Amino acid sequence: MVDEALSAGAVARRLGVAVTTLRTWHQRYGLGPSEHIPGHHRRYTSSDLARLEIMRRLTAEGVSPAEAARWARQAPDPTPNGTGTVAPARILPTGRDGGGSIPVGRAGPAARGLARAAMRLDAAAISETIAHALAASGVVATWEGLLRPVLAGIGERHAATAGLIEVEHLMSRCVSEALAAASRANVPTGPARILLSCADEEQHTLPLEALAAALAEAGVSYRMLGARVPVAALVEAVNRTGPAAVVLWSHTRATADPTQLSALLAAPRRPLLVLAAGPGWRADTLPAGVVRPVDLAEAVSLSAAVRDSLDQSRRD
Ligand code: B12
């Protein structure tokens, strides 16, 4: 071991990090050189190097330095003279996406923490973070400040690397469950005057689920048809329930066929308001009379206003 001991500069070169980073990891997280020969600088043994390699890999994958250091310190000594009993690969987060982290732009520490939990595929931490934010800040603020940045970041990373599909799926499931729990916690009374639906073949449901939870929070009843609704089924639902407003979500151009909106406007029980929501729709192809909200807050306030005006006209 003594023969293989390395200087800080040599370790930094092997790991591809700066010497100052090594010093920080030593001072803050106790991942320093363990070999000490009196009268000489301390040197890194191969066990030290193995721990630092774990630290480097996990921080590159988006795990926080403090947590990465905890894994690195816990990891058994992989060298032949080491005393560890559990293989590091079985206890460490694996990060098979090729490394890197989820970009969250200017979003705050909660979004960064959520992004790290998503990278670790830590469903419990993801769910807890979202539930806490929903309880503390409400649906619109949680969507805009926490969920949207992380979802967009996952999309960005996926577009760049073709990876992170497992992260996207787990995150989607946790978001759905948290929004459904928030909706169940605030079930509004009164008839459901707002109909929520995805366009035909559209599988991106999370923004509509956020809208459902925000409407529930605002005391507005709704009906949710969910993903991939064929236009004939949508028109049938309109004719059977007579909603004041229909929100039709399209996330991509592929599902944004404007004839779906025209069919709603031509329905025998034409809704007072048809909202074309989502980035799939192109403003210049929307039929006259269709409104395009800019964000979740506007979709909530338009839906609440049209519900109120229908209730008012029924009372008059
Ligand atoms: C999660 C996700 C999925 C999940 C969806 C799970 C679910 N239950 O919703 C799954 C895995 C199913 C999925 C599937 C696919 N996906 Co996807 N997905 C995403 C991801 C990561 C997040 C989607 C989301 O919820 N975004 C919400 C926010 C982040 O979107 P936003 O556009 O910023 O929203 C703002 C505006 O729309 C505006 N707004 C305006 N009006 C309104 C109204 C309301 C009510 C709200 C809330 C907002 C709003 O405000 C929003 C912010 O709040 C996105 C990345 C992204 N940037 O969106 C990719 C993304 C949308 N998917 C993409 C693709 C390609 C696909 C697939 C085709 C992949 C495949 N090969 O199978 C399929 C499509 C299937 C289909 N036919 O629909 C691409 C689309 C590229 C494009 N523009 O065409 C994206 C952009 C990823 C990428 N960069 O490549 N996906």
Structure characterization notes:
This protein is of the alpha/beta class. 53% of the residues lie in helices and 7% in strands. A five-stranded parallel sheet has the order 2-1-3-4-5, sandwiched between helices. Strand 1, helix 10 and strand 2 (222-226) form a beta-alpha-beta unit. Helix 6 (109-119) packs across helix 8 (139-161), helix 7 (123-137) packs antiparallel against helix 8 and helix 7 runs parallel beside helix 9 (165-185). The longest helix has 23 residues, at 139-161. The structure holds cobalamin. Cobalamin (B12) binds at residues 143, 148, 151-152, 154-155, 158-159, 168-169, 172, 176, 201-207, 210-211, 251-252, 277-279, 293-296, 299.
Distance between the termini: 89 Å
Provide the gyration radius in Å. Answer: 26 Å
* Mean pLDDT rating: 88
Helix content: 40-55%
SSE class: alpha/beta
Q: What coarse outline follows from CA principal-axis ratios?
A: elongated
Low-confidence segments:
82-99
Which hetero ligands occur in this complex?
Answer: cobalamin
Number of helices: 13
Largest sheet: 5 strands, parallel
User: What is the topology, as strand order, of the major beta sheet?
Assistant: 2-1-3-4-5
What is the tally of beta strands? 5
